[in-house]
Amino acid sequence: MLGGAHIIFSNGLASNLTSNPISGFILGALTHHLVDALPHIDLNILNKKTKGEEFNLYQLPLKIQIIVLLELILGIFFAFYFFVYLNNKNIALVTSIMLGSITPDILTMFFSKQISKYELGKKYLNFHKNFHFKLKSFNKNYIILIALIELFILFLSLAFFKASLKFI
Ligand SMILES: [Zn+2]
Questions:
Q1: Tens-place pLDDT, residues 107-137
Q2: Residue 48: what are its φ and ψ, rounded to 5°?
Q3: Residues surrounding ion ligand 1 at CB below 5 Å
Q4: Which of 16, 88, 137, 152 is the most exposed place for a label (fewest CB within 10 A)?
Q5: How many domains, the chain?
Q6: Could you tell me the residue range of the domain that residue 34 belongs to?
């Protein structure tokens, strides 16, 4: 998923499970990997043949960089509106889940050189990449199907949030 979807999904799952910003950050990062394993649209959205570094934002066409940025801004805006404004969640909690939920991708996209100097860091980067859902056979119908599944997953995370408001 792109950043905005990660932010919404992680807040949907985690913002009722804790009120502590630190555990919120950790839950945000953990749920990132959960959703990476589900079918979703990713950085290879317009790039039909992604070979090698699908994570490297700088190597992607400007069109994709703009989509990534706009989707991120939209996700941040939606998360603050939905969780903080409509559902009175603490702004520090929502922000820390937000940061946690995009940290794995920020580490992988911008700091992979530094991290891979360490054995544990290398293991983590591989774990993240292997966990990532990849679009194999790429055609237009398939993208629409995956986009619908992603929207459904996002909807489920918000439904989970609404349901867990009452119980937790
Ligand atoms: Zn990821």
A1: 988 888 899 999 999 999 888 887 776 655 5
A2: -70, -45
A3: 36, 104-105
A4: 137
A5: 1
A6: 3-167
